[in-house]
Amino acid sequence: MKQSKMCGIWALFGSDECLSVQCTCAMKIGHRGPDAFRFENVNDYTNCCFGFHRLAIVDPLYGMQPLRIKKFPFLWLCYNGEIYNHLQLKRHFKFDYQTQVDGEILLHLYNQNGIQEMASLLDGVFAFILLDTANRKVFLGRDTYGVRPLFRLLTDNGFLAVCSEAKGLTQITHSMSEPAKITPFPPGHFEEFDLKQTGKVKSVRLESFHSCTDKPRHAVHDSAGELATDFALEAVKHNIRILFENAVRKRLMAHRRIGCLLSGGLDSSLVAATLVKLAKEEKLQYQIQTFAIGADDSPDVVAARKVADHIGSNHHEVNFTPEEGICALEEVILHLESYDITTVRASVGMYLVSKYIREKTDSVVIFSGEGSDELTQGYIYFHRAPTPKAAAEDSERLLKELYMFDVLRADRTTAAHGLELRVPFLDHRFTAYYLSLPEEMRVPKDGVEKHLLRDAFRGLNLIPDEILWRRKEAFSDGITSMKKSWYTSLQEHIDSQVNDSELEEAPNLFPYNPPTTKEGFFFRQIFEKHYPGRSKWISHYWMPRWIKATDPSARTLSIYKPDKDQ
């Protein structure tokens, strides 16, 4: 099956400035699709256009976008993502495809069922821009968890600019006297605009089409079939295994080599082990490559080695020094478009491992364990939740905010190097099922977080037992040497760069989300240098709940017990 892989999308409707001038902004996201670029004007609308960066795939004839087909000459589609159930939907509705691209399903669904139904039937990750010239409409949409990014800029006079990353919009020329607001598009929503003859637009509705707790509309077309609905422990564990395996299997849809990030923690180990198992079943012609990053003696690298030996992957260990980490910081913040402390800190390792994958291997599609901690209450602070209800509510809050934090980190650090991320823990059906379970079942048990998830895979020998029951390490903590952490080295560097009086000035200098630590101040300075006045892209800093914390690192929490102390 051919599909559009990782890419960058960009579009303007009603541009106030000559398109050839604006076009240079689209080049800012070239890393998302390093193999080809296309710029296309829209017939009869001189100030509307699409820009598309593509990561090469197998279908050279139809892989480029905007995607248009003879059957619907009035529809133009630019999208970034994968639609895992496009073949099931094609068969169910008996659609007559003209290309081999998964995104073609959007055109048929929209034409037959309208935008709301179209969006809610898509099982996958996506950000789309759909233009309907027959009905003079523009639609934007983004997947449930915002795994694929999308930003929009809308001026007072109806000029709309849209891009995969905010950096493609910051230099857009418009006729307003003050800077135009650039906002992340809300996950799980679509927006409808009326398109005027002038090319300008007017927003007419913004609606949710799926929330993480709703059973997805597309579940009926899913290959996992119907599941037992009672909450008996064995039935629940069975369902968790079925749905998780199904989530990994549907994400094997790829014509480029598949690899997997492997930190040695529970989540990435389950993903990697299931991926290797299914790759054999599906008879993939190559060995799955796994990638660990960290210092030689770091707990994560040692654990990842054990998992790789157990599952039989082609394992790579990527080492980085604190100096390399510090050198990469500015570039990382530039790609992230964020100054959140835990996001930046954890992104350095992921950025460097992605760089290694791009330069030294031929793996392009990269599986990863993001989303599990939010879904299964994996953060250490969940031990302090006052009630199961409070824990369940916080789990949902974390999932809804993923697009500002871990999912943002995972997308930008991999896309920076032209890789394409797949996150099976954020499968719509898997997450909706897990969130439907009784609140008491999902909380930490016997002093172990994610107890239910671990228990579901007990006794299967999928991963070594010691890994199945391994306590959580924060990513930025687990990759560092036990002797001296990357965190400590980073703090020492920052201490030499930021003095106490500067930190005292922080609330005046940065009134929105003022940093309270030197590290936060240092990251914010770099962010403001590249994106002045854009601090509202994140609404708050990621912080643990229910405990007095000034730092988001697990290692600095009083509940944190490294394995060796237990």
Automatic annotation (TrEMBL):
L-glutamine binds at D102. It holds the Pfam family GATase_7. It is an enzyme of class 6 (ligase). InterPro entries: Asn_synth_AEB, Asn_synthase, Asn_Synthetase, AsnB_N, GATase_2_dom, Ntn_hydrolases_N, Rossmann-like_a/b/a_fold. SUPFAM superfamilies: Adenine nucleotide alpha hydrolases-like, N-terminal nucleophile aminohydrolases (Ntn hydrolases). GO terms for biological process: asparagine biosynthetic process. GO terms for molecular function: asparagine synthase (glutamine-hydrolyzing) activity; ATP binding. Residues 7-196 form the Glutamine amidotransferase type-2 domain. PROSITE patterns: GATASE_TYPE_2 (PS51278). Its EC number is 6.3.5.4. GO terms for cellular component: cytosol. The record marks E370 as: Important for beta-aspartyl-AMP intermediate formation. ATP binds at L261, I293, S368, G369. It catalyses: L-aspartate + L-glutamine + ATP + H2O = L-asparagine + L-glutamate + AMP + diphosphate + H(+). PANTHER family: ASPARAGINE SYNTHETASE, ASPARAGINE SYNTHETASE [GLUTAMINE-HYDROLYZING]. This is Asparagine synthetase [glutamine-hydrolyzing]. It comes from Electrophorus voltai.
